[in-house]
Amino acid sequence: MNKGIMVAAFLLGFQSWSCGVFQAIAVKSTTGILDKGMEAVFEESDLGLAEQAIASDLKLLEALHKSDPGNDHLLLMLTQGYTGYALGFVEDDSVNGIERAKMFYTRARDYGLEVLRKNKAFDVAFDENPAAFTKSLESFSDDDVPFIFWTANAWGNLINLSLDDPAVLVDLYKVNAMMEFVLHHDEQYYYGSAHLYFGMILATTPKVLGGNPEKAKEHFERCLEISKNKFLLTYVYYARSYAVQVQNQQLFESLLKTVEDAPIDILPEQRLVNAVAKKKARLLLAKESELF
Fold first, then answer.
1. Is the Cβ–Cβ distance between 284 and 256 less than 8 Å?
2. Residue 253 CB burial class (10 angstroms; 0-12, 13-18, ≥19)
3. Cα dihedral sign for 286, 289, 291, 292?
4. What residues have CB less than 8 Å from 289, skipping those under 6 apart?
5. pLDDT of residue 33
């Protein structure tokens, strides 16, 4: 081979390799900055500022994901980010809020499934019967709790907004199985939010279909115990699901007043989530006459 061609081929190969290395380094470095940025956002109590920051961060994360599609950490951040964005800033919007929230929850779920379906047993059983799907979760470990929780969280919220859509509702057993996995492997993960999920499900499902208000109450109380009464979203969903379902207006008002009266710094690392809880509590109280 002509020496000039050999040198050119080597240089092109080296350039391609070095670009890939530098790109990987850049993605890793930027991801670390975004980790700190997300921490700062969750410590923010101003909802307007936080909403703008999260929206821009999510698009940056998606750009990084295109550059490094196999990066599981980026996918976890996208799953968490779109779930939180939909819950905190989209669901309650009076203009197309529900439809936009469904879109973002779907996006969050799908990012999470990108990682989970790398597990061969889970991928093979994904479209099988409920028993096979549940069995496949045994192939995961404690280290997989964050991915399983946030994927199930996004998926559960999507189903909650799509109760009139059988095509979405049919997957509820998958979400239940995934949240059962979280309860078994780390019930305290994210302030006991798997308990929060089952509290909502058991409170709002009719008894003939497996609903159990008293068992729901136990899950809500356990969630509050785990968070030392500091994760205020628990009170909101306790009021919205259990208190409304059993028509206990006094409990409804008491739970939401607790949210209103709690200092925003009660859980400094989750000021944003607690600020969202306060907003949701106000919206619920405004609908009290419709609920009782």
1. yes
2. middle
3. positive
4. none
5. 66
Dmax over Cα atoms in the chain, in whole Å? 88
Report DSSP state, residue 208.
G
Which of these, 125, 127, 151, lies nearest to 138 by C-alpha position? 125
Phi, psi of 117 (to 5 degrees): -80, 0
Tokens found for residue 172: 């509820």
Pull the structure tokens for residue 125: 């059983």
* Burial bucket for residue 51 (CB in 10 Å: 0-12, 13-18, 19+): middle
Q: What is the pLDDT of residue 114?
A: 97
The two three-digit tokens of residue 291, written as one number = 């609920």
**Contacts of 17 by beta carbon, 8 Å cutoff, 6+ apart:** none
Query: What six digits make up the tokens of 152?
Result: 């199930």
Q: Which residue shows structure tokens 């089952």?
A: 198
> What are the structure tokens assigned to 63, written together?
């750009």
Question: pLDDT tens digits for 176-199?
Answer: 999 999 999 999 999 999 999 999
Cα–Cα dist 199/186, whole Å: 17
Exposure string (b/e) for 263-286, b if CB count within 10 Å is 16 or more? Answer: eeeebeebbbbbbbbbbbbeebbe
Provide the 3-class DSSP secondary structure of residue 132.
helix
Rounded Cα–Cα distance for residues 121 and 28 (Å) = 29
pLDDT digits (tens, 9 = 90+) for 31-41: 666 677 678 88
Q: Tell me how far apart the alpha carbons of residues 94 and 115 are, in angstroms, rounded to a whole number.
A: 33
**What are the residue ranges in the chain where pLDDT is below 70?**
1-34, 37
Q: What are phi and psi of 71, to 5 degrees?
A: -80, 105
- For 279, phi and psi rounded to 5 degrees? -65, -45
d(CA 177, CA 148): 10
